[in-house]
C-alpha cells in the first residue's frame, strides 16, 4: 500500500504533463495552419494585383506605340528659329522624311529628301532607330497579350506565361530606349548647331515631334517595367492533402480540407 500511495501522485503528474504537451502541440499545429491560410490569401491578392499591373503596363505600351508612330511621321522635329527669320509670316520645319515651308496664308509646301546616301549620318541613324522601335513595340504588344494571366492560350502553365510577359516587357523597354536615343541625339544636334558660332547654316529649334518621342519613350519604359515586375510568379503551394490532428483521447480536434475546395481551406473543431 505504501508503494501504491507513492507511485499514484507520480503517475498522475506524468499524465497531466503528457496532456499539457499534447495540447500545446495541437495548438501549435493549429496556429501553423492558420499562418499558412493567411499566406495563401496574400498570394491570391498578389496574383490579382499582378493581373492589374499587367493590364496597366500593356495599356501604357499601346499608348507609347501610338505616340511613336505619330513621332516617326511627324514633320516638325525641328523648326526654323524666328530670331533669324526676316519675316514672321513664313515658317520652315523638317522631320525625318521631308522638309516643309508654311506661310501665314495657310499654304504648306513639302519636299521629300531626294537621296538617302546624301543625308547626314545622325538622320539616317534616327530613322533606323525609330523603325526598330515601332517593330519592337508591335512585337511586344502581341507577345504581352499572349502572356497575360487573364488570357487563355491552350494549356500553357503560369510559369511559361510569366516568361512570355517578361519577354514582352523587355521588348517594350528596348523600344522605349531606341526612341529615347533617336530623339535625344537629334535634339542634341539641333541645340549644338544653334549655339555653334561657326555654324553657317540655318539655325533651328526643337519641334513638337521630339516632345512626342520623349513622351513615348517614357511610357514605353514605364509600361515595360510594370510588365517585368508583374511576371514574378508567387511560390507554388504544397500539394493538396487532407490531414487531421488528434488529441490524447483519440478524438479529432482539427481537420484541414483539400486546397482545391471551392471555398478555399476549411477547419473543423
Give the topology, please.
Layout: H1 2-73, E1 78-80, E2 90-94, E3 98-103, E4 108-112, H2 121-147, H3 158-195, E5 204-206, H4 208-230, E6 243-246, E7 252-256, E8 267-268
Antiparallel strand pairs: 1-2, 1-5, 2-3, 3-4, 6-7, 7-8
Helix pairs in contact: 1-2, 1-3, 1-4, 2-3, 3-4
Compose a concise summary of this entry.
The protein contains four helices and eight strands.
Care to describe what's here?
This is Claudin 15-like b. InterPro entries: Claudin (IPR006187), Claudin_CS (IPR017974), PMP22/EMP/MP20/Claudin (IPR004031). Keywords: Cell junction, Cell membrane, Membrane, Tight junction, Transmembrane, Transmembrane helix. Pfam families: PMP22_Claudin. One of its GO terms (biological process) is intrahepatic bile duct development. With 269 residues, the protein is α+β, with helices and mostly antiparallel strands. It has a domain of 170 residues: Up-down Bundle (Butyryl-CoA Dehydrogenase, subunit A, domain 3). The protein has four helices and eight strands. It has a five-stranded antiparallel beta sheet with strand order 4-3-2-1-5. The protein has a three-stranded antiparallel beta sheet with strand order 6-7-8, covered by helices on one side. The radius of gyration is 34 Å and the shape is elongated. The N terminus and C terminus are likely disordered.
Amino acid at each position: 500500500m505504501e508503494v501504491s500511495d507513492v507511485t499514484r501522485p507520480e503517475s498522475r503528474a506524468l499524465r497531466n504533463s503528457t496532456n499539457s504537451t499534447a495540447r500545446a502541440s495541437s495548438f501549435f499545429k493549429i496556429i501553423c495552419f492558420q499562418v499558412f491560410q493567411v499566406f495563401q490569401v496574400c498570394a491570391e491578392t498578389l496574383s490579382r494585383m499582378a493581373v492589374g499591373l499587367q493590364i496597366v503596363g500593356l495599356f501604357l505600351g499601346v499608348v507609347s506605340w501610338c505616340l511613336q508612330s505619330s513621332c516617326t511621321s511627324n514633320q516638325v522635329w525641328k523648326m526654323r528659329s524666328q530670331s533669324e527669320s526676316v519675316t514672321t509670316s513664313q515658317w520652315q520645319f523638317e522631320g525625318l522624311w521631308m522638309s516643309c515651308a508654311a506661310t501665314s496664308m495657310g499654304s504648306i509646301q513639302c519636299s521629300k529628301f531626294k537621296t538617302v546616301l546624301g543625308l547626314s549620318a545622325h538622320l539616317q541613324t534616327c530613322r533606323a532607330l525609330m523603325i526598330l522601335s515601332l517593330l519592337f513595340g508591335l512585337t511586344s504588344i502581341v507577345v504581352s497579350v499572349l502572356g497575360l494571366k487573364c488570357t487563355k492560350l491552350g494549356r500553357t502553365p503560369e510559369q511559361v506565361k510569366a516568361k512570355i510577359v517578361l519577354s514582352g516587357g523587355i521588348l517594350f523597354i528596348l523600344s522605349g530606349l531606341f526612341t529615347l536615343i533617336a530623339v535625344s541625339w537629334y535634339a542634341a544636334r539641333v541645340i549644338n548647331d544653334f549655339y555653334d558660332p561657326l555654324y553657317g547654316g540655318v539655325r533651328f529649334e526643337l519641334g513638337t515631334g521630339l516632345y512626342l518621342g520623349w513622351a513615348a519613350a517614357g511610357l514605353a519604359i514605364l509600361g515595360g517595367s510594370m510588365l517585368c515586375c508583374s511576371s514574378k510568379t508567387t511560390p507554388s503551394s504544397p500539394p493538396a492533402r487532407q490531414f487531421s490532428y488528434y488529441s490524447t483521447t483519440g478524438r479529432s480536434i482539427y481537420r484541414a480540407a483539400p486546397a482545391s475546395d471551392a471555398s478555399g481551406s476549411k477547419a473543423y473543431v
